[in-house]
Amino acid sequence: MALFDVVGARRVVAAELGATTERVVLLNESDWARPTRCTEWTIADLVSHMGLAALQQAEAFRRAITGDLEPPAFPGAPRMSRDALTEQLQRGAAELDDALGGVPPESLDVMVPLPFGVVPATVAIQIPVFESSIHGNDLAAAMGEDEPLASAVAAAFIEFAPGLLPMLAAGVWKEAVGDLPSPGLAYQLVGASGGIDIANHGVGWEIGAAIDDLPTCAISSDDATLALFLMGRVASSDPRLKISGTAPGAAENFKSWFPGP
Hints:
- This protein is of the alpha+beta class.
- It has two domains: 6-147, dinb family like domain (Four Helix Bundle (Hemerythrin (Met), subunit A), Up-down Bundle); 157-257, Nonspecific Lipid-transfer Protein, Chain A.
- The chain contains nine helices and seven strands, in the order H-H-H-E-E-H-H-H-H-E-E-E-E-H-E-H.
- It has a five-stranded mixed sheet, with helices on one face. Strands 1-2 form a two-stranded antiparallel sheet.
- Helix 1 runs antiparallel to helix 3 (82-101) and helix 1 (6-24) runs parallel beside helix 5 (126-142).
- The longest helix is centred in the first third of the chain and has 24 residues, at 43-66.
- The two termini are 24 Å apart.
């Protein structure tokens, strides 16, 4: 299993948020206005989101331990001074580390009230791993640093993605179904640690469904690049991706079918 246990998740989150904080304290005034790969977000917006997300996730885990399943409020990414944003990120990292430390490793069936739903801790502990790692990678990219995701994080994300993709696709295919070739379309996503088959026979996207004779777009790469592609951080034109199959042109439309986050 590639997914993290609570000890491993806590370790990765602490390292990722620590590395992000080290970058943030070195930013100059003009750096905070740089654009990022997150649409319409500057570095200041990204750092604000990361700090607030960490604080919200910490509160969600604290509530889980007490049996309170009401999701904590998330106030968006308000404008704050660079010092306040840095302090918020540091506080979020400390509170999330403390909260993850309070999740009993033997009780991962406890339910956690995250914004998108109340989910078992086994699932919930993956979210701050991906949040801190991918947004940390967003910050590095905004500063011109081409860094891969950690291999363990990328492999875990590819294992996690089959549960995430249907949520991303919800409500999209009905509006765009006319763009599907007849009789439908399939994607085969292949990384070093595993793959994902996705098929649409005209009634919605199904993970692991039979591809049969559908037009198929195969997209393969190392785990880190494939994970960033799935998250919309790497374009289909990236030379690290190998595109093949009977419908290779569908690669550039993947994020239209599975938008965000």
